[in-house]
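Hello forum,

I keep getting stuck at the same step: I have a sequence, I want structure tokens, and every attempt I make locally crashes halfway through. Rather than fight my setup again tonight, could one of you with a working pipeline run this one for me? It's a single chain of 123 residues.
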Amino acid sequence: MLSMAFHNELGKKGEDLATNFLLKKGFQILENNYRFLKAEVDIIALKGETLVAVEVKTRSTPEFGDPQDFLKPQQIKRLVKAVDHYVNERDLDVEVRFDVIAIIKNKMGTRIEHLEDAFLYFD
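Reply #2:
Ran it on my machine without issues. Output:
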């Protein structure tokens, strides 16, 4: 069984990898770990005129499914509310998109998959 410390450490490494990945793709990082009520948005970034809320899912193995498969409808609702609050609080006039960065990181290497407009796949 994996310890909670390992899980948290893996999650933090994943968020750092995702941040660097987005920076290399020309994103401007506005916030990391933005909290609103019970939600935490891993990364809020800007790409052109689009505000991109990024949920980072990191796993050490794809054995139990892809990292993005662990997003629950309740979590998506909370993330949408949090980003709505972020945009309104700052009076931003932007398009908003929700992406998922799915990372598999283990001793065999690191695989990063960037799913744009990821919430379109969820109901």
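The CA atoms of residues 84 and 96 lie 9 Å apart. If your local run keeps crashing, start a new thread with the error log.
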